[in-house]
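Human: If only I could read backbone structure tokens as easily as an amino acid sequence. Take your time, and here it is.
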Amino acid sequence: MPLTAAGTVPPALAHDPLWWRSAVIYQVYVRSFADSDGDGTGDLRGVLSRLDYLADLGVDALWFNPWYPSPLADGGYDVADYRDIHPAFGTLADAERLITAAAERGIRTIIDIVPNHVSSRHPWFEAALAAGPGSPERERFWFHPGKGPNGDEMPTRWVSNFQGDTWTRTVNPDGTPGEWYLHLFTPEQPDLNWNHPDVRAEHEEILRFWFDRGVAGVRIDSAGLLIKDPELREVPETVAPGQHPTEDRDEVHEVYRSWRRIADSYDGTRVLVGEVWVPDAARFAAYLRPDEMHTAFNFDFMSRPWAAGELRASIDLMLAAHAPVGAPSTWVLSNHDVTRPVTRYGRDDSSFAFAKKRFGTPTDVELGTRRARAAALLTAALPGSLYLYQGDELGLPEVELPRDVLEDPMHYRSGGVDPGRDGCRVPLPWRGTTAPFGFGPDGAAPWLPQPAEWASLTVQAQQADPSSMLWLYRQALALRKREAALGDGPMTWIDAGADVLCFRRGDDLVSITNLGRAAVALPDHESILLASSPLEAGLLPADATAWLRVAPAPRHP
């Protein structure tokens, strides 16, 4: 049954139509969050059992990675059925109970939608393979004859987002080679043809299905990739705006305007959050016009190195990009695809790029932890909404896993060079001194192995320790709720030196981050609200952030 009649907003969440502009949104990777039944895989009942932890942490919404039936060729981003739950995670009834229970605690639910592609096990694709060339079933996808005398050459030389080819050839019933089909990711993820009315109608119904069950929003995976050049032109050396054959084509905005109309037809504010990898600021902002998405992920900030000039440039860039359309920026340090901050910020090169990931990259975990603490307060003080990936509040490092347990297709499609993304997906440690650390029942091995040294990083070990990462996050999120100046709203830079990021929020709150090597003096202040590291003789040490209560700024007539 739906959460409430006709998908209306539950009373506990009906009071704030602009909740999304300042929300703290916690990313739940279900498979690695909590295992209720001992099969080694996290599930929805496990999340339900930990809702009080999330409420105590102070989050406003939960964003769930895909929880649908899937062969898991790409961690669930190969969806076979959008109207059900993967049996390893539970049932549709479990999802509805979870949405309701979270709402009772004042926590909204956001789910993933993956519109660019489906699983090769999806009924549509299985029907397309069975129907053969020229059939209506194949028109929902990108089937195409090959080039060359015998059709042996791929229709294009487009490169996969996971490296390698983007076309796979089918086999006809008589065993002869058939047409090719397009997949910008793995062969198990055939791309949909968004020029086909069935594809558009199906996704609109999927939105209604979940909004009717009380979901407060959807995060749209690979949002800029839906529309393809029907002429299948190659990628030119210089790409004019909107002319890339597979990325950020102008027609994609028609899709999101339609989705926004559906979202706006429901009570309350049902939000559209885009995963939009677009380097041009103006074209990025186009996705956030008032009749399209509400917000989009800010990948630029997350990818920058730990350097004051780089981070300030990113902050200025993103605030300027959002300003023309009146949308709030989002701030995030990591997610289920990105090297965890504790590890990344401890490396000589603390920036992030998928192409640079390699086994054996050294890191200074102590330095990385100190910087990750400072970054947590820095991002929480910036204007807009804040995303927090599960486990970052515990200061978990990236895990370099043995090659024989890796599942991520990015590893295998790189020829084994890229360690993939499994290292940031290791199941969470909750309690105890040995694995599985409360992730599941004692003795139940999780789907990825946890390091023995995580005994000191469990929730149980940190929750009563005022020096822990968990304690810092709880304090920061509580202050963020209490201080009206934090969240959405203006900010003003304060000049405090080349290696320092200092800005005012509201009338009486200042955030200062020292990214240099030497301790720095704090601005004049009345009190310290919170600091990521202890002061040194009254000075803010290197790689630290402090929030200060200051005298109100003078008001000019």
The longest strand covers residues 108-113. The chain has a mean pLDDT of 94. Residues 515 and 543 are 5 Å apart (CA to CA).
